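Today's session is about reading a structure prediction critically. Students often jump straight to the picture, but the first step is always the sequence itself: look for stretches that repeat, for charged clusters, for runs of hydrophobic residues. Only then move on to the predicted structure, which in these notes is written as discrete structure tokens rather than atom positions. Here is the chain we will use throughout the hour.
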Amino acid sequence: MTRIAVVVGSTRPGRRSMQVAEWVLKRAREHGGAEFGILDVADFDLPLLDEPLPPSLGNYQRDHTKRWAAAVAGFDGFIFVTAEYNHSVPGALKNALDYIYAEWNNKAAAFVSYGSAGGVRAVENLRLIAAELQMADVRAQVALPIASDFRDYTTFTPSDAAEQALQPLFEQLISWSTALQTLRK
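Below is the predicted structure for this chain, in token form.
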């Protein structure tokens, strides 16, 4: 069965990304069509990239890198849940993406973002990064404005539009994740 990870991209204290990721995971499991799990960047304690060789060589030296690579390798596609920090991606998520290479190749990516402008600028950056990592990003995305989808800017309360936007995201991601499996065999 196709396996898809919901990647929690912020490690910041008080982060909103876990609330969003849990919502995405619950809706994904209700949708079905794949096996879904969570990959929380915070669980891996990755320091700033400290591998002596470029990740594209696949010769990982550090135990934390090997653990991260093994976790990512087990999935066929990813839903990146990301905040927008200063018009871009949280540093912890960018660092986690940079750590490894082949484990991302020929897999599909979708994006659920949040921030003052719904996190769309972070997703613009993530699409460029995904392309360099040879990931196929799907068109559908969910953008969550912090002023309307978070009560008092803290408690996640998804709008009906956000709920509806998840369905095409799941459909596209499952299709692409399944199709790309043939390239990795």
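Discussion point for the tutorial: The chain has a mean pLDDT of 97.
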